[in-house]
Amino acid sequence: MTQPTDIRREHLSTALALAASGVPPLPLRAGKVPFGNCPTCAKNACGGRPNMKTPGPCTCPQPCHGWAAATTDPHILNSPTWRRAWQEAAGVAYHPGGAGLTIVDLDNADSITWARATLPATRTVPTTRGEHWLYQGAMQSANAVRPGVDIKSLMSYARWLGPGTGALTGLPDVVHALIVKEPAPARPMAVTMPAPSAGGQCPHRTPTYLDRGITMAEQRITSAREAVHATVYRTFLAVLSTHGRCGCLTDTHTARLFTAAQAKGETPRHCMDAWTNALTTLGL
What is the maximum span of the chain, computed from C-alpha positions, in angstroms? Predict the structure, then answer.
C-alpha cells in the first residue's frame, strides 16, 4: 500500500526530474492551487515576481507568487523550505511558458472534437475532463478563448499529468489567433492633434513617406505577441516624434493607428490614454 510519505517523495522526485529537463515545476496544494504567499510577500508587498525571465526584487525562499515560483534550480526545489512544501503538496504543477511551451487546455468532448478538426496534431496529455495539447513555443495565456478551451503558457501554470504521447509541433498561427479579439466598431473620438509648425508644411519628403510610416506603425502593433499596451504607446510615440510637429497627421491617420490597437484588444480609452501620454512626453 502506498503511504502519503511515499507520494510526497514522489512529488519532489518528479519536480527534480522536470527541472533537469528544463521544465520549471512548483508544488500544488489540494484543489490544484499553488501555495499562497508568505506573510512577508502578502499582497505582493515584497515587490513580487513579474515574470520568469526578469524576476522582481523578491528573493523569498518560500514557494511564493504562484506560477512565478516555478524554478529549474534543484537547490531551491530541494531546500528545507521547499521540502516542507512538498510534504504538504497534493501534486506537481509547472510553468509552460517558462519551458517554452503552450498548452491548449480542452475541458470536454466537444472541445476535443473541435481541436481534432482545427488544430495541427501534437503531443497530448489526458486530463480528468479532457486533454492538454502541447505546442512548442510560448505565448500570452488566456481563459475561455472558446467554449471549453483555455490557453496556458506565459504567466500561468498547469498540473503535471505526465509526458503525454506524440511529437511536439511548433506553435501554429491558429492557436495565436484564438486570443485575438474581434475589433470593436470604431467610435468617433475627439483626438487631440498637435499644432502644426510654421507654414504647416511637412518637411519629411513626400506624403508617401507619411503613409509608409503609418503602415509600418500598424504592422508593429499588429505583430505584437505580448506587452501590447507598451507596444501601442511606443508606436504612438514614434509616429508623433516624427510627424507630430509638422501638422501632417490627420484624423484618418490616427484612426488607422487606433483601429490597429483595438484589433489587438486595446479599448478606445487605452488608445486615447496612450496617445495623450505620448503627446505629453514630447511636449506637444
Answer: 88
Strand partners, 153: 155
C-alpha distances in Å from residue 54, one per residue of 1, 26, 98: 44, 18, 11
What 8-state DSSP symbol labels residue 140? Answer: B
Alpha-carbon span 164 to 277, nearest angstrom: 48
How far CA 11 is from CA of 14, 63, 84, 85, 156, in Å, comes to: 5, 14, 12, 10, 20
- Phi and psi, residue 30, nearest 5°: -60, 140
239 burial via Cβ count (<10 Å: 0-12, 13-18, 19+): buried
Mean pLDDT of the chain: 84
Helices (H), the chain: 4-20, 74-77, 80-88, 109-118, 173-176, 207-222, 228-243, 251-263, 268-282
DSSP class of residue 22 equals T
Say which residue the cell 510610416 belongs to. 213
Question: Model's pTM, two decimal places?
Answer: 0.64
What is the 8-class DSSP label of residue 226? S
Looking at residue 186, the DSSP 8-state letter turns out to be P
Under 8 Å between Cβ of 247 and 202: yes
260-271 exposure pattern, b = at least 16 Cβ within 10 A, e = fewer: bbbbbbbeeebb
Please tell me the distance from the alpha carbon of residue 73 to that of residue 16, in angstroms, as a whole number.
9
Give per-residue pLDDT as tens, 47-100. 776 544 444 557 788 998 889 899 999 999 999 999 999 999 999 999 999 999
Q: Is the dihedral of CA 25, 135, 146, 160 positive or negative?
A: negative
Q: How far apart are CA 81 and CA 115, in angstroms?
A: 41
